[in-house]
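USER:
I wish I could look at a protein chain and see how it folds. I am handing you a single protein, as its sequence and its fold in token form. As I understand it, each token names a local backbone shape. I hope you can help me see how the letters and the tokens relate. The protein I mean follows directly.
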Amino acid sequence: MSEGNGQFRIRKAVPSDADDLIRLDEKVTGMRKTEYWRDLFKRLRARPPADLFIFLAEAEIGKESGRRVLGFVIGEARAWEFGSAKCGWVFGIGVDPKAREEGIGEALLARISESFLAAGVSTLRTMVARDNHLLMSFFRSEGMTAGPYLQLEKELD
């Protein structure tokens, strides 16, 4: 299934998209995470499609040039060990900085939300670094608020 607004379309990512997604993620985060993406696609092939989702937004840039990946979202419908009922977790979303403010992030979040609903969950969750104001503002603008859990951590020697 693909959908979009005429300027871009959203579709399920496939293993042959990995290199494009690795490049875009590096552009967005500043980190090259090749093994992370390869592992996601291995899991996608091994897991029932109702649990793990990777979508991308792309634009056609001409017959000779092909397409340009503009954004992605990754998530999983699962129950966590902390007593949480099954919910949809977004653990990665990114939009090419040159394509921001075009509705791509909103469309990607809407698409994965539809998939979570179809997988039988009605709650969407994510984690955001406290100092990531851009991502925090995005999720807040999409109606997300603080949830019932608090992340705790400790540096190990």
Q: What stands out?
A: The beta strands are 2-4, 9-12, 52-62, 66-78, 87-95, 124-126. The mean pLDDT is 88. The longest strand covers residues 66-78.
